[in-house]
Amino acid sequence: MNNKTHVGSAEASLMLGLSEARVRRLLSQGRIKGATKQGRVWMIPLYEGMPVIIAGGRGPQGTWYKHPRPVETCVVINQRTISNQLEAKEKRATEAENRATVAEEELEQERQRAKRLEELLREAGIDPDENATKV
Length: 135
Prior knowledge:
By secondary structure, the protein is mainly alpha-helical.
């Protein structure tokens, strides 16, 4: 949060939405509440976060910001980076699926080898369940 109590003429012009020349003119006319000059610099007090301009007596009504403007939020999106990250995630997911498929195929081959060995043992007259070593 900004806790400033005073600003210069340039910052006041941005806050009010006026040109710096117009703010300097208002300062010289004494129409900015509580403004004092310290050396070459104007010190403009802030009331509830904004400088206060005293309305003129004649002519059209002036137009300036009376309340602080909300801070604009700027979100920068780098689409190239995001798309590259998504592609990398998809690639890793595909590679993981491929590794899982290969592991399943190898497991199935081992099961088939075990069945073949059991059949060979039975043909030789050996009961594979009796002679199996428990691990």
